[in-house]
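Entry for 5'-O-[(L-methionyl)-sulphamoyl]adenosine complex. Fields follow.
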Amino acid sequence: MESYYVTTPIYYVNDEPHLGHIYTTIAADVLARHQRMASRNVFFLTGVDEHGQKVQQAAETRGIAPIELADQVVARYQSLWPELAITNDDFIRTSSERHKQGVQALWRRLENAGTIYKGFYEDWYCVPCETYWKETQLKEAECWEEKKCPDCERGVDKVQEESYFFRLSAFQDRLIEHINANPDFIGPDSRRNEVLRFVESGLNDLSVSRTTFSWGIPVPGDEKHVIYVWIDALSNYITALGFPDQQMEEHWPANVHLIGKDILRFHAIYWPCMLMAADLPLPKRVFAHGWWTVEGKKMSKSLGNALRPADLLEQYDTDVIRYFLLREVPFGQDGDFSFDALKQRYNSELANDVGNLLNRSLAMLNKYSGGVLGQVSDEENIDRALIADVEGMQMEASRAMDKQAFHIALERINEVVRHGNRYVEENAPWALAKASNTARLDTVLYHLIETLRLVAIQLAPFMPGKMDKMLGQIHGEDADINVLTYAQYGGWGLLKPGHQCSKPTPIFPRMD
Ligand code: MSP
């Protein structure tokens, strides 16, 4: 079975989970579920990033050890993921022994390859962002006068320390070649150009160890240095697979690293160069999504307006949240979260379109034939057009999913739903019943139910709970949403005449 390996960033433990964190993880889950349904051998990884000065300081402020702080936040994440129907196969903690072993092994590989050297380091450091800035970068960003971080605009500090360096500069040409030879390596396309321009402007060697704090993984053989948190963090994608001891080949290289746009440089430049240096294959794709604002405002700790998953889950069903986040904003672009927009989309697309088509179709089937599917006879053009639309939707949605274009997949599925509602109007089953045209009535109802069934299967990765209920009403109990595949269930005509469907139970009641 072909492997499909999808990852999320590992989340810092000095902050509580918020909208930004659940966004990537939901997207990764939708991909993982879709690929499982496409019969791939999926490995879906998420986890937490526990080391670094920021976490050490946050723990000190609270008067606890860094690992205690990490344990608390880990518990939050681990109880949150099931609530959002997240089906990760593993959860990596960077404080774990398996991770530490893997990172140190990678370090030794980089050293043996001659890509690490000791030097002296002078730079500007932003503690909240854990990012080092060169004087030239601060000047370019017009942050030099005020000595502030170009990303978060908070103050940067001058640091000078003995440090190990990674020969990033040595990989500049190979990376440019790789990006040019692999158009899918970085998505969306606009990000790809951004990375290319950055690499072409010249890569400096990277300082990859610190002596100014201790909460991290020691450099093998020189324990007063800890390994730079980004080297530590990025390695999670292979340490979770058992690097270096276990065979990684089953899942490596990853099919896609899903990340936010702010951490693209780390994933599309540093990480690939490290992998080249270690003579390991590069991930097939790095996809950077955009950022959410909430009701028009940037989420920030100082404003205290970060949208917490618990607040969302209190008001909305998990599946509705999942649907909205991937439907509202084209994946890759920035967008705004608002409760009004959520309600509007829910009412128009889920309650009015999908919910209505399901309810009216099942209601008519129950009214006119006791919920039992009849024979299809004399298929007409209007029927064939519906089937062709469903089959076209399956192909196009699947292609969109391969490019992480969730919004396009959903829009295409919704088109079929609207087609289904039109088909009801055009065929007016109530008139066929009145005229006792049973043959035509049976044919029309059959096409409606099959359309709904295949819509439910296509929507299953997005809304597993709701679609399980929907399929339950159509199929009966035997179709388990968590294990069914497109190959088994995705073909038109699976339901046979004589099949009994349930009475409709609304799954998307209107929201007021
Ligand atoms: N620990 C690093 C990642 C290491 S991966 C090897 C990190 N952690 S983070 O917790 O700060 O952020 C994780 C993700 O949340 C990032 O991908 C970031 O883009 C995302 N988001 C944070 N705020 C966000 C929004 N407002 N909107 C969308 N995503 C945002 O970075």
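NOTE: The chain has a mean pLDDT of 96.
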